[in-house]
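lol so apparently i was supposed to do this last week
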Amino acid sequence: MKTLVFATNNKHKLEEVRQITADWVNIVSLEEIDCQEEVPETADTLEGNALLKARYIKEHYGFDCFADDTGLEVEALNNAPGIYSARYAGPGHDARANMRKLLREMEGKENRKARFRTVIALILDDKEYLFDGIIHGVITAEKKGESGFGYDPIFMPDGYTQTFAELGDALKNRISHRALAVHKLAEFLSSLS
Ligand code: IMP
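anyway here it is w/ inosinic acid bound
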């Protein structure tokens, strides 16, 4: 089985991606390679940030790896928070504060359409590849549900009547932006062998 480092410090993402890829790739965490640094995310696109994170691990630790960057793009807010999703309410990466700010910005807005977009950058044998996944939905009027992380309690995917946080991990991991991107990564890796 192929082994790849997943360049994330987010335990929820690690768990999600491990569940999705359990049968075909052995995923190693940053903790397991003893990387404790905060990897820089200073690019102005999701693609740029995902590549920065993957290149950092390849350059400093030498492992083939992949990294993801995700943004929540809200139509009525000109696609904000986008690449600033993690620090929308300030530098603290506080999901509750981010959701509070987003719900406030959306007060009185009729158009509540939004999408999550994930970009995965893979570095394999010194070549770089990009994969993306998008899920469309709406921003709810209030938080609902306990599972997942980040903006999950206020994002309701199209075709469902509950938020990601109500739908639960198993369903989210079948339909989410990250699942779509990870499946593209999986198809690519299996096409190589
Ligand atoms: P990053 O990809 O870790 O930079 O994530 C950017 C922001 O989007 C963070 O605030 C995350 O909590 C949030 N985020 C990323 N993926 C998800 C998701 O699957 N559901 C909800 N929020 C997410």
